[in-house]
Amino acid sequence: MGLLNMPASKRNTRQWKLLDIISAAFFGLVIIFFLMVFTPLGDSLAASGRQTLLLSAPDPRQRQRLLFLIESGQHHQPIEACPADSVDHMPCEDPRRNRQLSREMNFYRERQCPLPDETPLCLIPPPDGYKIPVRWPQSLDKIWHSNMPYNKIADRKGHQGWMKESGPYFTFPGGGTMFTEGADKYIDKLKQYIPISDGTLRTALDMGCGVASFGGSMLAENITTLSFAPRDSHKAQIQFALERGIPAFVAMLGTRRLPFPAFSFDFMHCSRCLIPFTAYNATYFIEVDRLLRPGGYLVISGPPVQWPKQDKEWADLQAVARALCYELIAVDGNTVIWKKPVGESCLPNENEFGIELCDGSDDPNYAWYFKLKKCASGTSSVVGEYAVGTIPKWPERLSKAPSRALALKNGYDVFEADTRRWARRVAYYKKSLNLKLGTPAIRNVMDMNAFFGGFAAALVSDPVWVMNVVPARKPSTLSIIYDRGLVGVYHDWCEPFSTYPRTYDLIHAAGFESLIKNPSSKKNRCNLVDLMVEIDRMLRPEGTVVIRDSPEVIDKVSRMASAVRWTAVVHDKEPESNGREKILVATKNFWKLPSASH
């Protein structure tokens, strides 16, 4: 009614304003269309949109179709690159996903893996300025700053000798919070109490390791120290360790057992690791006890050992050690050294923590997504001789069949045959396949299907370390690998591995498709494409993949190699080997995001 009563001049003004708006909107859309189609802005916006889609949860149907096309060899383009901000992405340790979870016992910092359909199917790019890593052994002391340009540790811990920025490098003086004068001097102090240099000790676990300078210095003593720490606020402790060529992986001592079998480590070390060993009825100390060999050594430096205002915590720590009958070797300043008893446990006894022996239903070797227990694992629950002092010294223990292997059916014969087989295969790899094993080009090696560790044992004279992975659904042979003086973890290859991108020089997999098969039904539990994308994430640019399997599987993998930007060549197996195997050797191409190449 109001409009009808207005003068005509005012009505016309309103109509013209409306037409102006419509016209402006139309011409605006035309201009946007022109910009999107005929200028680089359109490409940029489209790329940005694709990156947003890659970060968000993918459409499961589209994802399955893409997997089918890649597996059948009908997808002739490489899988798209992930966004630039995903250069350090670890799917199971993603802070954006995990921060929403419970903080009780640090649950939110443990592995929390997305389902495959929730995982973007894309290839992790290197950061801008990435270079082929500094070769071993120079990498122990310096790495390229541009490969992981995170200055937080250098800024906060440089005065303690952790690491420093020096021109184009990060350098590592070898220090740590509890050994600011260097790990070498700290280890010399430990030698007063522990037989570090005579081959008695070979496998060590460094808990909450910083940049792993302790583990790096222990290499000179012929002790392989596997270092672990969670994904952390300091940004990439474990990434620095692996870039240096030091054995390491990402883990958190939270609500679950660590992924190792019982009685694996000769020596366990914590330097200001801040693990509350006596909390939750000493649950964390009990987990350390599960992993430490009888006769092995436990060293804790830093709080609460003779630490100001932590008298109760220090008293509790000593009380737990007494309850488990650990022998106190020394308290030297803020460092305590204990030796675990050999033989039957002294439990049950009266102790204030209520620690008891686990009952017969507990398998202390089971440690894949297994909740921590509040009971101690007795040595009677594991068959064999594995105490420090009863097993051979290094290097004899590498080649002698461990008693835990003899507990398996035909264990001795299988062990000896496996050792001979891998010595023959590795010789063929070097001579006929021209793999760079034995050269500075290969330092960090992974065996995805390690069994007895025969592949790693055959590389013992090379300047490498090997992460031996025993698939969680296969026979539990990881304890035998540790008895040989090698290191490794349990893992299920239908999930991403707990490491940063670009951390291995060579990844080896025998029986490739078996890694994802259900042992009972023989059906695949997940997709080979996802497994290849995960291998690509872990592999350094110009790194090598070696896959052994039937001709049918090798043919399938060869068809898919270009999708993950690998250059692959298929070879015949060694002349002396039986069976129908073929060997695929692939190199990861060094590619960069377009924006990073300008």
Automatic annotation (TrEMBL):
SUPFAM superfamilies in the record: S-adenosyl-L-methionine-dependent methyltransferases
Principal subcellular localization: membrane
Membrane topology type: Single-pass membrane protein; Single-pass type II membrane protein
Record-level Gene Ontology MF annotations: S-adenosylmethionine-dependent methyltransferase activity
Keywords of the record: Glycoprotein, Membrane, Methyltransferase, Signal-anchor, Transferase, Transmembrane, Transmembrane helix
UniProt cross-references to InterPro entries, sorted A to Z: Put_SAM_MeTrfase, SAM-dependent_MTases_sf
Gene Ontology cellular component annotations, sorted alphabetically: endosome; membrane; trans-Golgi network
Membrane spanning residue stretches: 21-41
Enzyme Commission number(s) of this protein: 2.1.1.-
Phosphoprotein among keywords: no
Pfam family, one: Methyltransf_29
Localization per record: Endomembrane system; Membrane
GO aspect biological process, one term: methylation
Cytoplasm keyword on record: no
Signal sequence bounds: none
PANTHER family assigned to the protein according to its UniProt record, in alphabetical order: PECTIN METHYLTRANSFERASE QUA3-RELATED, SAM-DEPENDENT METHYLTRANSFERASE
Family, similarity comment: Belongs to the methyltransferase superfamily.
Name of protein: Methyltransferase
